Amino acid sequence: MKNVFIFFMLFTSCTILAQEKRVTFGVKAGLNYGDNGKIEITDVTRTTADDRVGYHLGVFLRGKLTDNIYLKPELQYTVNNSSYKLANSELDYTIKKLDLPILLGISVLGPIHVFGGPALQYIVETDLEDVRLGDVKNEFTVGLQFGAGVQFGRFNADIRYERGLSKNTAKSIDESIRVDSRPNQLIIGLSLDL
């Protein structure tokens, strides 16, 4: 619970910093395509995840620091999916988390902008099909996002890449299965300024 409080305090701090300049509030949604890391099962070699589609929903603030540079903290609920093919079966792995990317962006040519920054993540739940998992090692992790987008009036579309930087695993109760819980994904998002 302490981590959730810290997570929301960071978002609030970014909000206060952004309010000193021109601020836009909005909503966003999109699809995530990628995977988490490898699965390790006792007596079985490591298996890499197959890419699967997930989704995200959230809100953002965009504060203009100058005419061309902005700070954009986002708060979103994200579901990541991965699938692991084993000898005689397939296991689906789902992670539900709160993401707080804090992006610094710059307009480069007309409506086109590029951005990047840290992505703070709080893992709410993990689920490996037919396997009882314990808690992940670290519920609060850090990643990196960077990408590009286009802004047309109140509408924005962007594409970005995210990679989890903090090593983090989920283990089965008997510790015979370990799953890398770091995201490695391509994210396509649409947002609307309100």
TrEMBL record:
Pfam family, one: OMP_b-brl_2
InterPro entries named among the record's database cross-references: Beta-barrel_OMP_2 (IPR025665), OMP/PagP_B-barrel (IPR011250)
Signal sequence extent: 1-18
Protein name: Outer membrane protein beta-barrel domain-containing protein
Keyword Cell wall biogenesis/degradation: no
Keywords annotated in UniProt: Signal
Domain Outer membrane protein beta-barrel residue range list: 18-168
Keyword Flavoprotein carried by entry: no
Species for this entry: Aquimarina atlantica
